[in-house]
Amino acid sequence: MIIAVASGKGGTGKTTIAVGLALSLEKVQFLDCDVEEPNAHIFLKPEITHTQGVNIPVPKINEDRCSYCGKCAKVCAYNAIAVI
């Protein structure tokens, strides 16, 4: 059986419900896929046997050279730049 708990809004109790379900079942694989605050481990207290660093590219704009043309926003592969 696969159970997914999802919502687009934060603070709705998704982690609380998911942890409660996980603790009430016997064999569970729990994946906390929250990209901003994956914190189910706080409640489940798993034994961490391996960690791996993650690098996130962050755009850096040289404001002295920026003409606000918007080219950087058009070519950014991550859609991380907005010219306003």
Automatic annotation (TrEMBL):
Domain 4Fe-4S ferredoxin-type: 57-84
Pfam families: CbiA, Fer4
Signal peptide (from-to): none
Name of the protein: 4Fe-4S ferredoxin-type domain-containing protein
